[in-house]
Amino acid sequence: MNLAPNEDRAVLLDVQDLRVVIDGPAGLVSASDGVSFQVRRGEIVGLVGESGCGKTVTALATIGLLPPSGRIAGGRVLLGGLDLTRMREDELREIRGSRVGYVPQDATAALNPVVRVGEQITEVLRAHTSLDRSAARARAIDLLRAVGVPAPARRLDGYPHQLSGGLRQRVAIAIALACDPELVIADEPTTALDVTTQAQVTELLARLAAERSLAVLFISHDLSLVASFTDRVIVMYAGQVVEEGPTPRMTSAPRHPYARALLHATPRLERKLPRLATIEGRPPDLVSPPPGCRFEPRCDRATPRCRTDDPQALRPAVACWHPFDGVSA
Amino acid sequence: MIGRIRWVAAIAAVVLVAGACGGGGEGGGATTSPTATGAVGQRGGELVVGLDSDATTLDPAVDSGYAGTQITAQIFDTLLTVGDDGQIQPGLAESWEQPDATTLVLHLREGVTFHDGTPFDADAVVYNLDRIRDPNSGSTWQGDLAPIDSVTATDPLTVEITLQRPYAPLLAVLADQPGMMISPTAHRADPEGFGDAPVGTGPFVLEERIPDERTTLVRNEDYWQEGLPYLDRVVFRPIPDPTTKITDLLSGAVDIVDYVPPQLIERVRQAPGVVYDVGPENYAAAVYVPMNPDAPPLDDPDVRRAISMAIDRRTIVDQVAFGAGVPANQMIAPSSWAYNPDLPQIAYDPEGARELLGGRTIRLEMQVPPTYVQVAQVIQQNLAAAGIEATIERMDWGTLIDNYYAKNYQIQVQDILGLTRSDPDGVLYGFFAKDGSLNGTGYTTPEIQRLLEQARTETDQATRAGLYHRVLELADAEALYAPVYHPANNRAWTEDLQGVEIKPDSVMDLATVWLQGG
Amino acid sequence: MAGLAEVPVGAAVRSSGGALRTVEWLAAGAFGLIVLLAILGPLLAPYPPEEQRFADGVLLGPGSPGHLLGTDQLARDLLSRLLVGTRVSLGVALAAVVLGLGLGLLIGGIAGMRGGWVDAVLMRAMDALLAFPALVLALVIAAALGPSLRTTVLAISIVMAPGFARLVRSLTLRERARDYVAAARASGASAGRIARVHILPNIWAPLGAQAALAFGHAIPAEAALSFLGLGVQLPDPSWGNMISEGYAYLSLSPWGVVLPSIMIVCTVASISILADGVRRALEV
Amino acid sequence: MTRYVLRRLAQMLPVFLLASLALFLALNLLPGDPARRLLGNRASPEQVAVVRDRLGLDEPVMTRYASWLAGVVRGDLGASFGSATPVREMVARALPVTLLLASAALVVALVLAIPAALVSVTRPGGLVDGLLTVVSVVSTSVPTFVWGLSFILVFALALRVLPSSGYVSPVADPLGAARSLALPVLAMALPSVGVMARVARAAMLETMQEPAMQFARAKGLSPSRLLLVHALKPASVAVVSVAGVEFAYLLGDTVVVEWVFSLPGLGKLLIDSFLQREYFVIQGVAVVFTIAVLFSSLATDLVNASIDPRLQERLVGGAG
Predict the structure, then answer these.
(1) Which has the closest alpha carbon to B275: B36, B501, B428?
(2) Residue B82: enclosing H or E segment and its boundaries?
(3) Does C197 touch chain D (CB under 8 A)?
């Protein structure tokens, strides 16, 4: 099912030197500090990093969904050539839900508990298409069937709490896909699910992406999870991209010490260990980050240079003064 | 030339000229031409009347309080009526004669029917008067009719009343509540329920009665006084809080109020669109403090006298009543011929009161209606200055009056405003005789009782005045009531309301008023 | 609805924690001043509040000689009545809150500590009291005991007791679940001692905030009861009494109504702003 | 749903029994004897004895409670001492007035509070939000009766546009009823507006912080839909809950408002009865008030269960 990376495909999402700051209690946090990456049409890209590394904020910033305390401090986000950071809210609104779908982290929390499932699907259709009520309903049934919800017509009149966690996530995916978007941002859509369901959902996403030539930006902290269905993986650490590359290489021989640590920290599916094995130490303070490599305090390959010189200067190559060679981990 | 009598006379004259019906009063009657004003009322409209309290009953045989009098006067006619000059005038009886000192013959008006269709005739009069005289009736007016020996119908329109002894106030009594005629048919059918479903011959017919909320009357289309009344409906609303009552008048929620309490007179006077007027002095109006001689320490006349002396009447009249009244020293008003001009004003003398009490500490509960909360507070301070600690117990008028007659009080602040009786016997016998209708204490002295009885049998006014003067002197010494002041006989109404006259008896005559415009 | 574009998502809406804001300090100052007036009132009052000085004149306006705020319909000094009325109204409210809090501590504490059927019965009893609208319950109590200042205090405190009892119970249950209470119990401390030594000191803060709110409700409750003649009895001044009496004379002199109304509004507003601030500050 | 309602009714029963017992004991056991309270301090022992006998006061108190309660269940609330009018008749006349007043006040309060909250949450900390805070503090700090008196002064006396008192039945004359109820309803509603607007605002701001709101925004929905469906609808559970509590307050406020505006409702009946020492009427009216409060809390739960179906399942499923 893995599509071969196709460098010829057109760039759909082009994030250029994106800077996002959040006004936190301790001061301004650089949640996204000069992030650049691209997603091509039909491509599934994994955006991987520990919690708090800025991957979610970066992804949300691309479609203008920052919290009020956050703002874009620099850079550009081009979607099909249009700069989303320059758009007014009402213009962005037309893109959200129609050209860019969003799959939330926890569908249980993300679905409105007091609104019927059907209405939560049709409202996005009614907002972006000219479908009338009954047509929207018919389309919602098709969508639910497409994402593998059994007895879809009956589900439409139910409420989210009457569905299982896996079904809720499928409903959320159906909503994200409702208007045939070009890009889906999936924000750790499987975190809240059990392992079996997790696999079903990722499989579903990959299948739908293939069927609809959909680009997917799949955010996860789990490198091994994304390994199974993504084309390319981007690894973020402390608000910066540290390494990116085709999935096979990234999951076999990552070069950045952090990416490698992430790979080792990630439990294998079959071992059924706690999913969130951790890397020693804590990410740096992003209010006033250290001048050199941000991973330096936790890195066993660190040298004095790492403390003073910022390896971001090496990008788009691996942002590390002492990367591993291409040997398998 | 004020009030209902004017219209009675006018219409009687017109009717006479037209030759439709015979009649006309012997005693008194028309003195001016009926065309004098030319102001004929406009028919229609609903009048809302604001009253201090609700009638406890609409049965005229029972004292229904001031509010009750205002309502029953619209539903019932009396056998006789009183002119502003105090002279007796025709009512349902169009003429009368007194062949001797113990006989009264009434000639009844022809063609009058009760609201339920029952004809008004001599039998009805017999039924009515016998009902009140029946010892089991529980009527407040038994004492007033006690001198009657028998009442007989000599023909369908003639009634003969025989007295045990001469009884001077009889005509005035028959012009008052005891003379209100109720339908025998209705009363026989449901004697218990009559107070809630009254049937009379008056200008208005009861439509609906919701106790403590409203009493609605509608025009009696067959009223015997041709052309009257003007109004389609009258709604009486009890509004116990005096401020609310006046506010409602000023805002147009009610059209007329029974009485403007002193503290609000200034407010009413200043208000646009509202007419405030003071009528001729009432014969009996008084604000007073009854003192229950059965409730210690008030069994001691010195205590009662001390309380009376301690009250600063001048301040109450000038400051609380804003001058709308005169300080009182007796229970009858200066306008009455029975008023005793020789009684000295009761001096405000807290020191004297203290001495009378001889250093005793006295604690009292003073029951106060909403109307007199301010007066009561002045009295409270006055009493404190004399060494009497009084607590104020607020209650509504109905409860206050119930307590008064049940003797469940020490002292109260009370008033008498609605006594319709022109004869001083009404108020003086009422207050001071053992079975007097206003005697909340049931207390009297043999001498007072004797004098009151004697005054009833005398026919000469000067002789009677002398007897009453003596009664008032003796009463002053007993001090069962501390008269405080005689309030002005005032009223206020919206300027759309025409034909309002304030009569000395303070009872509204709604048959002759009309609403102008709209 | 143009501004809707900025619908916040993760807004830091409940600006929680930290010190009081300016407006809350102002409210604290205003409330402190009112309390000071209540304490010093009778000392500052130029005349006894019920003294009728008819010689000076009735319904004088503010600034009249000898009467800074004028006089009322019975020639009583308005300043004196207002000052003493402040003490009466605040005193009634304070006493009611203290009593209500005491009842709540007792009932809620027992319910929380004992649990089981005791808890069930006590809490249903509190629900039963809550089944009466506040003013109706107060009126029933006034009817049962006869209207007086003491009855007013009792009535308002009984109205408040269920709120306090529920809060105390839930706080007690929360504290009881903590380790140190378990430890104390393991070491053999009695329930009473645990309640006194371990639980009570830890639940004061939220109770205090609740008490401040309750105080803000007790003031208008007293005013309403007295306005209806069911509360503080004449001639004692209270804000509700003054409004009730002065209303009849409004067109002649509005001060008898306006001044106590202002006092009520200022007191309730300052205490409620203050209570909000304190509660927020405590939530840290 | 029926099962749910039955279950809630069963939960209400002990509360009602306790409330009625408390009421009965308060008016029958507390200092002094009811006959004496009825007659006043000066009544003779004989008079008191007669009344005690007439009222059956010599029976044991629990017997009297039981027979009174049995009467209440049958709809017989006793009779007035003075006029012998059945309390049921008085209540039947007064209850519609009070319910109309309280419900109208609740509706008006909601109609004012919800839009105010909606506007204020669009810009927290903005001008409207600040204004709302000020208005809500002021509106809740002015007691209902002071609002009432002020409205009478302004609208009835100065402008003469609305009546200061009197009740017009909405069945007979809807416009007249609206006019006669306008001021009392507004006086009652205003203090509630502040409370409810603040609750609505807080609840909406809370729902706006939840992931559901972010997901809804990611759908590109219109601002009004975001606000009304995704912020207000979930928040309305909290608003309905506070409205239920406010309704109980409003029922209590009718006591003072009906007095100020002389409206013939339960509240005025209660005060009239108090001034007339009609303790049996007070008892009957107060018990009707508790029934009204209990049913309003039932209604609150039903409305909330219809808004948020999870609540219904939780309540039916959960332990009683």
Answers:
(1) B501
(2) strand B80-82
(3) no
- Closest chain A CA to residue C11: A68
Same domain, yes or no, for D144 and D255? Answer: yes
pTM of the model: 0.82
- List the end-to-end C-alpha distance of chain D, in Å, as a whole number: 16
Closest CA to C27 of C163, C212, C284: C212
A65, amino acid identity: L
Residue from B47, B194, B237, B251 to probe the interface with D (highest D Cβ count within 10 Å): B251
The whole-angstrom distance between B315's CA and the closest CA on chain C is: 7
Are D63 and D94 found together in one domain? no
Residue from A22, A23, A89, A91 to probe the interface with C (highest C Cβ count within 10 Å): A89
CB contact under 8 A, A68 and C5: no
The DSSP symbol for A48 reads E
The type of residue at C258 is: V
Please say if the pLDDT value at position C4 is more than 60: no
Determine the residue type at B233.
R
Contact residues for A57 (Cβ-Cβ < 8 A; gap 6+): A20, A22, A31, A32, A66, A70
Exposure string over C167-205, b if 16+ CB within 10 A, otherwise e: bbbebbbebbeeeebeebeeeebeeeebbeebbbeebee
Number of domains in chain D: 2
Is chain D adjacent to chain A, meaning 3+ CB pairs within 8 angstroms? yes
Q: What is the rounded CA–CA span in Å between residue C100 and residue C153? A: 9
> Exposure string (b/e) for C127-160, b if CB count within 10 Å is 16 or more?
bbbbbbbbbbbbbbbbbbbebbbebbbbbbbbbb
Q: Do D105 and D52 have their domain in common?
A: no
The answer to whether the Cβ–Cβ distance between B320 and C229 falls below 8 Å is: no
Chains B and A touch (3+ CB pairs under 8 A): no
Residues D183 and D105 in one domain: yes
In C, residues 129-188, which contact D (CB 8 Å cutoff)? 129-137, 139-146
Tokens encoding B29: 């009657």
Using a CB-CB distance cutoff of 8 angstroms, which residues of chain B are in contact with residue D264?
A: 210, 212-214
Enclosing domain of residue D112: 87-277
Q: For residue A196, what are its two tokens?
A: 């079996």
Residues D104, D251, single domain; the answer is yes
User: Consecutive sets of 10 residues in chain A, 329 residues long: mean pLDDT of each?
Assistant: 56 90 82 88 89 84 84 88 87 89 87 90 90 91 88 89 88 89 88 79 86 89 85 90 89 86 64 50 77 83 85 82 73
**Residue D306: inside a domain:** no
d(CA B77, CA B65): 18
Strands of B465-509, DSSP E? 481-487, 490-494, 497-498
Q: In which order are the strands placed within the sheet that holds B362-368? A: B388-394, B362-368, B411-412
Q: Do chains C and A touch (3 or more CB pairs under 8 A)?
A: yes
- Tokens 């309080």, located at residue: B65
Q: Considering only CB atoms, which chain A residues are within 8 Å of D218?
A: 63, 65, 96-97, 101-102, 104
CA-to-CA separations, C263 to A237, C32, D139, D153, D154, in angstroms, rounded = 60, 13, 15, 19, 21
Contact D275 B399 (CB under 8 A): yes
Residue B237: helix, strand or coil by DSSP?
Answer: strand
Which tens digits make up the pLDDT trace of B59-78?
988 876 778 889 999 999 99
For residue D91, give both structure tokens: 């209540």
* Residue D230 placed within a domain: yes
The secondary structure of residue B140, as a DSSP letter, is: T
Determine phi and psi for D123, rounding to 5 degrees.
Answer: -135, 80
pLDDT tens, B444-477?
999 999 999 999 888 888 999 999 999 999 999 8
State the first-to-last Cα distance of chain A, in angstroms, to the nearest integer.
24
Interacting residues of D92 by C-beta distance below 8 A, sequence separation 6+: none
CATH classification of the domain holding D148 = 1.10.3720.10
Instruction: Determine, yes or no, domain membership for D147.
Output: yes
